[in-house]
Amino acid sequence: MLVLSRKKNESIVINNDITIVVVEIRGDKVRLGVEAPREVPVHRREVYEAIQRSQQTDETTNPASQD
Question: What is the mean pLDDT of the segment spanning 42-62?
Answer without folding.
Answer: 91
